[in-house]
């Protein structure tokens, strides 16, 4: 499965890339996107299976990107990876298959990627 990472935070992109790279059967598409406009362009050119998408970004935010993807005939699966969990309901309404709260834990990422048809909402807080 090809995964596109979309996040305006370079450390978050690096961490997610490393985590996805450790999962068998998944590869990270390069380059990753730093904003919504880049995300849409890279989705058009790379045709990822899954998009790990931050919600809060400059310009088009992740919810706007997801809404545009919903208009497509065959959109990639979207898993939101973002800070506060206040957007969980909106994210899942935007046809996301998952919602992960940063810092993303490896086991939560793995669960979200392995279950592309079932909504996953998880928090790193314990």
In short:
The chain is 37% helix and 19% strand.
Secondary structure topology:
Elements: E1 2-6, H1 10-21, E2 27-28, H2 36-46, E3 50-53, H3 62-70, E4 77-82, H4 88-93, E5 98-101, H5 106-114, E6 120-122
Parallel strand pairs: 1-2, 1-3, 3-4, 4-5, 5-6
Helix pairs in contact: 2-3
Largest sheet: number of strands, sense, barrel closure: 6 strands, parallel
CATH H-level homologous superfamily name: Response regulator
N-to-C SSE string, H for helix and E for strand: EHEHEHEHEHE
When the domains are counted, the total is 1
Helix content: 25-40%
Large-scale geometry: globular
Radius of gyration: 13 Å
The span between the termini is 30 Å
Mean pLDDT: 82
Query: Class by helix and strand content?
Result: alpha/beta
- Oligomeric state as shown: single chain
What is the CATH class designation?
Alpha Beta
| Beta-strand content estimate | 15-25%
Catalogue the unreliable spans.
Answer: 117-126
Number of strands: 6
Q: What name is given to the CATH topology? A: Rossmann fold
Give the second-level CATH assignment, the architecture.
3-Layer(aba) Sandwich
Q: Output the strand order for the largest sheet.
A: 2-1-3-4-5-6
Number of helices: 5
